[in-house]
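Issue: ligand-bound run for zinc ion - logging full I/O for the record.

Environment: standard queue, default settings, no custom constraints.

Inputs:
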Amino acid sequence: MHEYVIARGVVESVRNFSLNFGCGVKRFKVLVGELSMLDIGVLREALEGLIAASEVRGADFSIEIEPARISCGSCGNIISFGEAVSHLSEEEREMIHFLPDLIASYAACRRCGSLDLRIISGRGVSVRDVVFTEG
Ligand SMILES: [Zn+2]
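Outputs:
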């Protein structure tokens, strides 16, 4: 269900690109955050259906997973989500996957020990690398 709403947003955004630049869209890339909890298969299907029914029909797309990264607010150290949760139990890991803001309650910076951890990528969905058709 989330997938359909997000697919609508993606197609709307690609359509806006097309209208703003006054040309058709050949292809684009959808970057999906590792923590977004979306079903890629469902998202792909929703996108295919919506694109076919929109002004940008015929546009090709690919979906890529953006890895989640965490930054330490104290020393600037950047670690992957996997590293940050590697010492936690499976249950804790699953909980943080659903509620990423809990990361600071369970993990500390490996370099300085600070609990000031922030998720800097891997949460949302974005449209990248839009290629327009010639003419
Ligand atoms: Zn640190």
